[in-house]
Design brief:
Blueprint (H helix, E strand, L loop, with lengths): L8 H17 L18 H13 L9 E5 L5 H9 L4 E6 L2 H13 L6 E5 L12 E7 L8 H11 E14 L5 H14 L7 H8 L1 E8 L1 H4 L1 H12 L1 H4 L5 H14 L5 E10 L1
Parallel strand pairs: 1-2, 1-4, 2-3, 4-5
Antiparallel strand pairs: 5-7, 6-7
Helix pairs in contact: 2-3, 5-7, 6-11, 9-11
The structure holds S-adenosyl-L-homocysteine.
S-adenosyl-L-homocysteine binds next to helix 1, helix 3 and strand 2.
Length: about 270
């Protein structure tokens, strides 16, 4: 709400270019997938939809609830929530103009544009009034924010007391060193992110109680290798729009990041005090 917050214009530009690729391979999503165990044969697209449902199912929204999707991508989770929980009113925000256009078009196609709204906005500088929302969720968006504390404080401000926040994101599990540190640093540089350190402390400081905090790394990290494989298969279709060197760098980095253990993945539910 103050105007001195850092901005995320570059992240937005990156997603203007990359969204079509990721959503084509991940059934409209831009996040990892969830597999029950090593035997689970689900495709990365099916597994990504599962993770969407795990998040959406934890939001606890009902008819008339106002829900905020922080970093909405192409709008898939917002639309999933609105179409599975009748009467829910969802607002998705993103710093990619391209994503907002795509998400709005999809809401119109699905006939839910009257209660699913998409808007260009920076989560570190929210354009919403205090206590406006009954719930919020953030899937792999906090990781892109230069000031994660500030984003969480902004989310806390726009939520009413008692409201839920569901987060699915990449966190530090233990200090990285050597080859792992190099992989994580490269991954973060190329995808413009920073793995989230001490998320429970950040949530506490922002005014949240932790309700659930699950390290689901063993169920999701294979998504990066699976995505890398799929990217290689569709390379010819996308290297016109995405610079070939950048595309190949991502293929390699995702494959390597998949095996990292110092970084992992958390599904967290918190409640605004
Ligand atoms: N949650 C979606 C998209 C994840 S990709 C999904 O799971 O499919 C990361 C998203 O975070 C993008 O939509 C990007 O625009 C958004 N994002 C990154 N930084 C942001 C910021 N400061 N404010 C709002 N959205 C942001």
């Amino acid at each position: 709400m103050a105007n001195s917050a850092p901005v995320s214009t570059d992240v937005g530009h990156m997603y203007d270019v990359m969204t079509e690729l990721f959503t084509a391979l991940l059934d409209g999503n831009i996040h990892v997938g969830y597999w029950s165990d090593d035997e689970d044969q689900a495709s990365v697209a099916e597994a990504a939809t599962r993770l969407t449902d795990m998040v959406v199912g934890r939001v606890g929204a009902g008819p008339g609830s106002q829900v905020l999707d922080v970093g909405c991508g192409a709008g898939t989770a917002s639309l999933r929530l609105a179409t599975t929980q009748d009467g829910t009113v969802v607002t998705g925000i993103s710093v990619s103009h391209g994503q907002i256009d795509t998400a709005r078009a999809r809401a119109r196609e699905l006939g839910v544009a009257h209660r699913v709204h998409f808007r260009y906005a920076d989560a570190m500088n929210m354009p919403f009034g205090p206590g406006m929302f009954d719930a919020a969720f953030a899937i792999e968006s906090l990781i892109h924010m230069p000031d994660q504390d500030r984003a969480l404080q902004e989310i806390a401000t726009v939520l009413r007391p008692g409201a839920r926040l569901v987060i699915a994101d990449i966190v530090d599990r233990h200090p990285a060193s050597g080859a792992e540190k190099e992989i994580i640093d490269n991954f973060c540089a190329v995808t413009q992110c920073r793995t989230i350190a001490a998320l429970p402390d950040k949530l506490n400081r922002a005014g949240f109680e932790i309700v659930e905090f699950d390290d689901i790394s063993t169920h999701v990290m294979r998504a990066f290798a699976a995505l890398s494989d799929r990217m290689r298969e569709v390379r010819a279709d996308f290297v016109g729009r995405i610079a070939p060197a950048h595309f190949d760098q991502l293929v390699e980095l995702f494959r390597r990041f998949s095996a990292v253990t110092a970084a992992g993945y958390v599904l967290a539910v918190a409640q605004r005090r």
